Amino acid sequence: MKKLLLVEDNEMNRDMLSRRLERRGYEVLIAVDGEQGIAAANEHLPDLILMDMSLPVLDGWESTRRLKQAPATQGIPVLALTAHAMAGERDKALAAGCNDYDTKPVDFVRLLGKIESLLPS
After folding, report:
1. Is the bond preceding residue 105 a cis peptide, omega within 30 degrees?
2. What does the alpha-carbon distance between residue 26 and residue 20 come to, in Å, rounded to a whole number?
3. How far apart are CA 106 and CA 100, in angstroms?
4. 3-state class of 98 per DSSP?
5. DSSP readout, 11-43?
6. pLDDT tier for residue 86 given thresholds of 50, 70 and 90
7. Would you say the pTM of this structure is higher than 0.90?
């Protein structure tokens, strides 16, 4: 079973996404801010991280940069999730170290495709 870390501060988004992903056979770990996300990634070494970019304590941009600089977590794919769909946001996410980017509200079928393309075989 592939292990996903969902770093999301919005409770409704967390509940909806985690339930739907679990129904698809994924183990879903939860963190509610960037610092918790980094700690959970180091502790559990998930197969993929779904990272909200607008997080309290430490935002998703900086959290991703730190994960990608650390030897233990740098190889974990990070998929940015953001409500910011403005031009340049995708490039900003990729520059921070994210492997891909998706917008909210989440199109679950599209998101699943992105998750599956990033997961190691």
Report:
1. yes
2. 9
3. 14
4. coil
5. HHHHHHHHHHHHHTT-EEEEESSHHHHHHHHHH
6. confident
7. yes
CB 54 within 8 A of CB 83: yes
Q: Where in 34-77 does DSSP place strands (E)?
A: 48-52
Answer for the pair 51, 63: CB distance below 8 angstroms, yes or no. Answer: yes
Return the residue matching tokens 């430490």: 58
| Partners of residue 27 on adjacent β-strands | 3
pLDDT band at 89 (very low <50, low <70, confident <90, very high): confident
The CA-to-CA distance between both ends of the chain, in Å, stands at 12
Instruction: Output the six-digit token pair for 42.
Output: 């180091």
Using the CB atoms, write b or e for 66-86: b if 16+ within 10 Å.
bbbeeeebeebbbbbbbeeee
- Say what the pLDDT of residue 120 is: 76
CA distances from 43 to 73, 74, 88, 113 (A): 10, 14, 32, 26
